[in-house]
Amino acid sequence: MLRRPSDAIVVEATVLEELPSLLYRLELSNKSQVLAHGAGLAQRDARNAAGTQRNWVRLLPGDRVEVEFAEHDPTRARILRKLV
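Request: output the structure for the sequence above.
Response:
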């Protein structure tokens, strides 16, 4: 499970494009754009105590994701999970 500080800002966004090195350009609901990296997308399987990871979650333009903003830079975020 990901540990987040209690004051972390978590919002929903839409993927606009995939960039090199697991970076994504996202659009927020207020139409602003941010860069986000794909941390946490290879989620751990809860059934396996050894911590084996599931397959990579591919993100495509138009996918909705949940992101957490960096405290020091409001233009950068971390993708927490893909929303269904």
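Residues 43-49 have pLDDT under 50 and may be disordered.
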